[in-house]
Specification:
It is a single chain. The chain has 105 residues and is an alpha+beta fold. It has a domain at 8-79. The chain is built from two helices and five strands; from the N terminus they run αβββαββ. It has helices spanning 12-25, 58-75; strands at 29-34, 39-44, 53-55, 81-82, 91-92. The strands form two sheets. The protein has a three-stranded antiparallel beta sheet, with helices on one face. Strands 4-5 form a two-stranded antiparallel ribbon. Zinc ion binds at residues 83, 85, 88, 90, 98, 101.
Length: 105
């Protein structure tokens, strides 16, 4: 096996994709790109025992996160906090002050 010269810049696209996913899901998930494993990982930050999710593509991981959240909402109804303001879509691990309340457009 030949040595693989690896450099951070080789994975720029993956890091940036992981960053975008992280920003999208940061209230409930920690998303990262693992260069050694060649996979994206998502760690659930809420109050439920969830195995880390992994996928080779950001879209695949995004789909897994969404699917897992639906499952968590059903199996662990109190695993995360939802803002009581009508129409607010805020969801987080702990109650969080946020202004203004994000509402779906
Ligand atoms: Zn709110």
């Amino acid at each position: 096996m030949s040595a693989v010269a690896w450099d951070v810049s080789d994975d720029r696209a993956q890091y940036s994709a992981a960053q975008q996913l992280h920003a999208r899901h940061q209230r409930l998930w920690w998303v990262m790109w693992a260069p050694g494993a060649r996979r994206f990982f998502a760690f659930y930050q809420g109050d439920a025992e969830i195995e880390p999710l992994r996928d080779t593509t950001p879209d695949g991981l995004d789909a897994q996160i969404r699917h897992t959240q639906v499952t968590i909402a059903r199996t662990h109804p109190s695993a995360h906090w939802r803002c009581p303001v009508l129409g607010c879509t805020w969801v987080s691990v702990n109650p969080a002050v946020h202004t203004p309340c994000p509402v779906p457009r």
